[in-house]
Design goal:
Layout (H helix, E strand, L loop, with lengths): L1 H6 L1 H16 L6 H29 L3 H25 L6 H29 L2 E2 L2 H20 L14 H25 L14 H5 L5 H35 L5 H11 L1 H12 L3 H26 L13 H18 L3 E2 L1 H19 L2
Antiparallel strand pairs: 1-2
């Protein structure tokens, strides 16, 4: 029995995580239960990565990276909207903090770690500058329109959009994201595939292609695992909030911790791709997740604002805008050559460390 469970762990764990989520939802959790929920959360993350790779191998790139990024983001958006509805005025800046954290984690943390891992193995991390540059430009535009402009608009007091401005930002976000997906999957998919000399390993080339039935099963289990990741992260969030408050840290640190938990599947998948010398896949995951986080969250909260009472703070503060601007500039310098060394990976990781440090010590 134990051997059977170990052999089929990627099937068993998502179901166990869903069961733990169903049993624990809406209950006060003691220390032992929080520990069990945390273990189930880690298991759900690992199984999500496993099933994402099966689906990606079946459908091929760049569709595989797109599926994981969109699946995680859709469930993450649902979590954000749910928390905003249930928390009222206390969640006025939740969407901003979560989206900004996602951008910094993906564009500096995941991207930097992927470049570091790949460059450590082959001295150079090689990728496609055309596709990656277009993705970075889209992320920068989405972030500026949705997170920077609200700080400077004058129609409403404070870092908030007026109703018309929020609708414009939502429509612009959907249009940009939709056009990018079309370019990535239909018009120029070759710009998002590994380049020669920095692409697939021999192991990937000879792996047997999963059957359609296996891919569909993995897709279903991927969704179950991702629901488990986000739901279990919500369950442990009160414990995280209590711990952060007890440590005297700002409330915005909660959003950073939860974003880190939710983005764990993409982080692990990106690092594994980098280890297999498929750097472009890692960058697709990182920038695609940042883009989906903004492009889907802003329209969702624009709709949710119809029945959510209280202000919706989207504008970044001065420190956050400096970090975002530096991320865009450094990212552009990293992308233009189409290759990176250990130095570029370390620069992005230092920016990510600065973000985390300033989030807990503003």
């Amino acid at each position: 029995m134990v051997r059977l469970v170990i052999r089929h762990w990627s099937v068993v764990i998502p179901l166990v995580a869903a069961l733990v989520l169903a049993v624990s939802w809406g209950r006060d959790l003691g220390p032992i239960v929080v520990t069990l929920v945390s273990v189930a959360l880690v298991g759900a993350v690992l199984s999500a990565v496993q099933h994402a790779e099966v689906v990606a191998h079946r459908v091929g790139e760049p569709f595989g990276s797109l599926i994981l990024a969109v699946a995680v983001t859709i469930i993450e958006v649902g979590l954000i909207v749910t928390l905003m509805i249930s928390s009222g005025d206390k969640a006025a800046s939740l969407a901003r903090d979560t989206v900004f954290a996602a951008v910094m984690i993906t564009c500096n943390g995941i991207l930097g770690l992927s470049l570091l891992v790949a460059a450590a193995r082959r001295r150079l991390a090689v990728f496609n500058a055309e596709g990656t540059g277009g993705a970075l430009a889209t992320v920068a535009t989405l972030a500026t329109l949705s997170l920077v402009l609200p700080t400077f608009t004058t129609s409403e007091p404070g870092p908030v959009f007026s109703g018309a401005q929020l609708i414009f930002a939502a429509v612009a976000s959907l249009v940009l994201y939709g056009v990018f997906v079309m370019v990535q999957t239909v018009r120029h998919p070759g710009d998002f595939l590994p380049v020669e000399g920095g692409g697939e390993s021999a192991e990937d080339e000879h792996d047997e292609l999963p059957t359609k039935r296996q891919a569909l099963r993995s897709l279903g289990l991927l969704l179950v695992a991702l629901i488990g990741v986000v739901g279990l992260a919500k369950l442990v969030s009160p414990s995280i909030e209590s711990g952060i408050a007890a440590a005297g840290l700002p409330a915005s640190a909660v959003g950073v911790v939860i974003a880190l938990l939710v983005l764990l599947p993409e982080t692990i998948a990106a690092v594994r791709a980098a280890r297999r010398e498929r750097v472009q896949i890692s960058l697709n995951l990182a920038l695609g997740s940042a883009m989906a986080s903004i492009g889907l969250t802003i329209p969702a909260i624009a709709v949710a604002s119809i029945w959510i009472e209280g202000p919706l703070m989207l504008g970044l503060g001065a420190t956050q805008m400096v970090l975002l601007a530096l991320t865009v500039v450094v990212g552009a310098l990293t992308v233009v050559p189409g290759r990176a060394t250990l130095l570029q990976g370390c620069v992005h990781l230092v920016l990510f460390s600065a973000f985390v440090f300033l989030a807990v010590s503003p």
